[in-house]
């Protein structure tokens, strides 16, 4: 069984605007779930915070339906992908909290995380821009 998550995030003003996340989950090539939402606004809201929410909300959905198959996670954020792969440190305090939540959910399953070009992340990008 193949589970694939694509994630994205956007912020109306970076930093400090309103953050939105988006994700898609495909199972064996078919769309299983598309999700999006508004995170809110604060001085520390950023595209990076919104991107982490995209991953987090997708993983929370998989947990809620009891799906623990191996997953492939893809996103166009080099920061998020490299932090989750352990290549880059997480320096920001507000990103550290989100990073820890994502890592906790990832420990329940086998996974790989890959960077993809923006052009290959159109579905998740669209979801993050729906208002």
Shape: globular
Order of helices and strands: EEEHEHHEH
Q: What is the percentage of strand-forming residues?
A: 25-35%
Distance between the termini: 32 Å
Question: Which characteristics define this entry?
Answer:
globular; 131 residues
Structure overview:
A hairpin with a 6-residue loop joins strand 1 and strand 2. The relative contact order is 0.24. The longest helix has 18 residues, at 47-64. With 131 residues, this protein is an alpha/beta fold. The protein starts with a strand and ends with a helix. The protein contains 4 helices and 5 strands. The protein has a 5-stranded mixed sheet, with helices on both faces.
Describe the structure in brief.
With 131 residues, the protein is an alpha/beta fold. Helices cover 36% and strands 31% of the residues. The protein has 4 helices and 5 strands.
List the SSEs and their pairings.
Elements: E1 3-11, E2 18-27, E3 30-41, H1 47-64, E4 71-75, H2 78-84, H3 93-106, E5 111-115, H4 122-129
Parallel strand pairs: 1-4, 4-5
Antiparallel strand pairs: 1-2, 2-3
Helix pairs in contact: 1-3
């Amino acid at each position: 069984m193949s589970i694939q998550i694509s994630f994205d995030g956007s912020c109306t003003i970076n930093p400090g605007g309103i953050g939105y996340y988006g994700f898609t989950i495909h199972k064996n090539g078919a769309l299983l779930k598309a999700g999006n939402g508004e995170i809110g606004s604060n001085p520390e809201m950023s595209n990076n915070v919104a991107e982490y929410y995209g991953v987090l909300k997708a993983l929370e959905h998989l947990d809620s339906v009891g799906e623990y198959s191996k997953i492939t996670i893809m996103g166009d954020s080099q920061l998020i992908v490299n932090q989750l792969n352990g290549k880059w440190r997480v320096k920001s305090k507000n990103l550290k909290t989100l990073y820890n939540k994502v890592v906790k959910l990832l420990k329940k399953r086998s996974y790989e995380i890959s960077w993809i070009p923006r052009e290959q992340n159109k579905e998740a990008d669209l979801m993050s821009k729906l208002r």
